[in-house]
Specification:
This protein has a single domain, classed as 5'-nuclease (Rossmann fold, 3-Layer(aba) Sandwich), CATH 3.40.50. Strand 3, helix 7 and strand 4 form a beta-alpha-beta unit. Helix 1 crosses helix 2, helix 1 crosses helix 3 and helix 5 crosses helix 6. By secondary structure, the protein is an alpha/beta fold. A 4-stranded parallel beta sheet has the order 2-1-3-4. The radius of gyration is 15 Å and the shape is globular.
């Protein structure tokens, strides 16, 4: 199964030094490397933008951009945005907040039968309401 990798996982892997990671975070970084090796990683443009946003150092920005260019952006259709709005509305009626970006992540993953790989615990709440799958690191 393909895996849509969220900004939180990319940031751990690409924007933090490995020496600063705790054992659980190292497991996440290792899992991302395995998924990349298996050719299962998927990316959308909004996640690319989030990962690259806030990088102050021009050289680091260039390295991150070059690295991420190895991953094509999944094409987003009008139906994906419409489904994201429906998912957002469904979550809100159950008292679960969801950002526009996270709703689109859920929509794209659900429509393509992909899992979402994230460290954002809010996705666990959304998974109780929406038909989304979450990817957990293999031990």
């Amino acid at each position: 199964m393909n895996v849509l990798v969220d900004t939180s996982v990319w940031s751990l892997s690409l924007r933090r030094r490995s020496t600063d990671l705790n054992p659980a975070e190292r497991l996440i970084v290792r899992e991302l490397a395995e998924l990349i090796g298996e050719g299962r990683v998927r990316l959308i443009g909004l996640i690319r933008q989030e990962v690259l946003s806030g990088v102050r150092n021009t050289e680091q920005f260039g390295r991150l951009r070059a690295y991420l260019r190895a991953f094509a952006d999944e094409r987003i259709a009008s139906a994906d945005y419409e489904a994201a709005a429906e998912m957002s509305n469904k979550c809100r009626t159950r008292g679960i907040t969801v950002s526009v970006v996270d709703a689109l992540i859920c929509s794209v993953a659900a429509a393509r039968d992909w899992a979402i790989f994230t460290t954002d615990a809010d996705f666990e709440h959304r998974a109780r309401v929406l038909s989304i799958k979450l990817h957990a690191p293999r031990k």
